[in-house]
Amino acid sequence: MNLLVTPIPELADALDSAQRAIRRYCVLPDAASYDAVTLWAAASHVVPALDVAPRLVIRSAEKRSGKTRLLEVLSLLVNDPVRFADVSVPYLFRRIEKAGDTPPTLMLDEADAIFSAGRPSERSEALRGILNTGFQRGFVYGRVEKPNNQLKEYRVFALAAIASIGALPDTIEDRAIVLTMRRRSGTELVEQFRLRDAGEYLAVVRHRLHRLLTDHQDEIASVRPELPVEDRAADLWEPLVAVAHLAGDEWINRAWTAAITMVEQAREDESSANVGLALLEATREVFDSHRDGTWIGSVQLVEALAKVPEYRDLASGLGVAGVARVLRPYGVRPANHRVGESVRKGYRLVDLRDAWTRYLASALSPATGATPLHPQRGQEEAATGQATQPLRAATHDPNRRQRDAEHLAAATGSHIEEVTHVRS
User: Fold this and answer.
1) CA-CA-CA-CA dihedral for 369, 119, 175, 273, to nearest 10
2) Any idea what DSSP says for residue 64?
3) Is the Cβ–Cβ distance between 363 and 118 less than 8 Å?
4) Which DSSP state fits 385?
5) Helix, strand or coil, per DSSP, at residue 59
6) pTM of the model
7) Nearest to residue 105, comparing CAs of 35, 46, 188, 65?
8) What is the mean predicted confidence (pLDDT) over 81-96?
């Protein structure tokens, strides 16, 4: 382990300048998020020195949460950005291959349009294959190309930032530092973003980062920093902590704090997501037997859940407000509904059905629930970018309701605090 890296004081100042630029135009959830994003942008300038290219997933539960703005700002700070919302997959892997040892930084916006529209498509699976395969140096994306069925291998190792409403496939998020955005409050003020002015300003910041980091790529390649996290999280954070080591003690401490904070947040989000999926399944079962097949009142939903033995603890533990809080990240919110002369809050079938299609189908699909790609699983996975074994198959499970109820009961007990921290 080589920790004897001589800090570069000017790099610490350059990272501070980059973060000030991000804060000038964007509002992120906390200090750890600003530090993580700043170090990730800096790492894009030393990709030839890295063995792992962590993805940066920028997601939110709703529109107008600042995801695209953050991508715009980052695209002016990272090395060789390729921004796209709709792209030909063959173009993408050829573009990365053509760049050789200095690959571009992929900046994918509106990824939910590709990955969250029900069942996986051939295009979404091909893109997912590139993103999964390009996470670790040494893997290739294999193709059989016409007209002579020629075998062709493409290097697709590259950093990628991906913005999405809602979660992305597990195999992508498992390779990502995940940032959950939320809408700015009235007291959170930023400067108006104008590309011409911002471009000139950010170009100066970017050029300084690029010069300092590319001049010291050998040090980045040789350092083996101590890390406060383990396993896949250590893979993700090592490039960022390595950059921090070149900037000195303050940035090392900030990198460590960011890693610990965001890894713990990811664990909480995962636990909350499990509860949310189980609650969605419960609402689907309740609607199957509900007389009014288009709408159900908020109080009626909780009462209906309480009548099902498996969901009784859920109903009493969360209540009306808790159910609304857990469903909100899935785009489901109580709406006003006229019943005779009165107006009541409740849930529309059209909103719930959209959430069932997006999240329950993908959660049970072998394609989106595939196990993470690992080198020891063989060259077939490396060539296709897809794992060979599903995490969970879409088959009938007679014990599913009981198991989901246990998840929900746990959520209303020792894990209730995790539910309350789901960001909207």
Assistant:
1) -70
2) S
3) no
4) S
5) strand
6) 0.70
7) 46
8) 91
Ramachandran class of 122: left when φ > 0, alpha when ψ lies in -120 to 50, beta otherwise: alpha
Neighbours of 394 (CB within 10 A): 15
Rg (CA), the chain: 23
**Can you say whether the dihedral through the CA atoms of 311, 315, 320, 325 is positive or negative?**
negative
Over range 302-329, report the average pLDDT: 81
Q: What angle do CA 11, 212, 137 make, to 5 degrees?
A: 105
Euclidean distance between CA atoms 423 and 33, whole angstroms:
14
Distances (CA, A) of 242 to 22, 75, 99, 245, 306: 21, 22, 24, 5, 52
Summary mean pLDDT of the chain = 81
Cβ atoms of 142 and 383 closer than 8 Å:
yes
**If residue 156 lies in a helix (H) or strand (E), which one and from where to where?**
none
pLDDT score recorded for residue 361: 53
Number of other residues whose CB lies within 10 A of the CB of residue 25: 20
Q: How far apart are CA 164 and CA 111, in angstroms?
A: 5
Residue 360 DSSP symbol? I
What is the per-residue pLDDT for 278? Answer: 79
Report pLDDT digits (tens) over 121-147. 888 899 999 999 999 999 999 989 888
DSSP H or E stretch at residue 345: strand 342-348
More reliable by pLDDT, 3 or 293: 293
Work out whether the CA dihedral 418, 364, 362, 279 comes out positive or negative. Answer: negative
Cβ atoms of residues 118 and 175 within 8 Å = no
The position carrying tokens 């079938």 is: 349
What is the rounded CA–CA span in Å between residue 376 and residue 361? Answer: 29
Count the Cβ atoms, other than its own, within 10 Å of residue 238: 21
Burial category of 35 from C-beta neighbours within 10 Å (exposed 0-12, middle 13-18, buried 19 and up): buried
Question: Domains (ranges, CATH) in the chain?
Answer: 9-269 (3.40.50.300), 273-420 (no CATH)
CA–CA separation, 44 and 78 (whole Å): 6
On whether the CB atoms of residues 39 and 240 are closer than 8 A, the answer is yes
Q: Measuring CA to CA, which residue among 50, 42, 54 is closest to residue 13?
A: 42
Task: Say if residue 23's pLDDT is above 90.
Answer: yes
Helix (H) or strand (E) holding 97: helix 89-99
Place of tokens 């003020």: 189
